[in-house]
Amino acid sequence: MFYSVELLSAHCGKFGIIWLAATHMRKHLSRRELNSVDIVAACNEITSCLSGPVRIRFSLYLASQLIFGLCIIYREKTKAVLRE
C-alpha cells in the first residue's frame, strides 16, 4: 500500500474530505465540510508528502485524486461565493 489509511479516513484524517470530494462526486458535501478545508494548506501538505520521506509518500494516482478533490472543493467554494 502506498499510503496510510488514517490519512484518508473521513472523520480524523487530514485528507478525508478532499478524498471524498474526488471519489464521491455525486455526494453533496455540506457547507461546513467545504469551509473546513484550507486549500493552500492542503496543497502544501500534498506537496510535502510527495517530496518528503519515503514512509509517508503517496502513489501518483492518489496524489492526482487529492488534487482533483481540491479542484472540486475550490469550484464549490467559488460557486458559494458567487451565489451570495
Automatic annotation (TrEMBL):
GO terms for cellular component: meiotic cohesin complex; nucleus. It holds the Pfam family Rad21_Rec8_N. GO terms for biological process: double-strand break repair; meiotic sister chromatid cohesion. Keywords: Nucleus. One of its GO terms (molecular function) is chromatin binding. InterPro entries: Rad21/Rec8-like, Rad21_Rec8_N. The keyword Nucleus applies. Transmembrane segments: none annotated. It is found in: Nucleus. Residues 1-83 form the Rad21/Rec8-like protein N-terminal domain. Its main location: nucleus. This is Rad21/Rec8-like protein N-terminal domain-containing protein. It comes from Paragonimus westermani. The lineage of its organism: Eukaryota, Metazoa, Spiralia, Lophotrochozoa, Platyhelminthes.
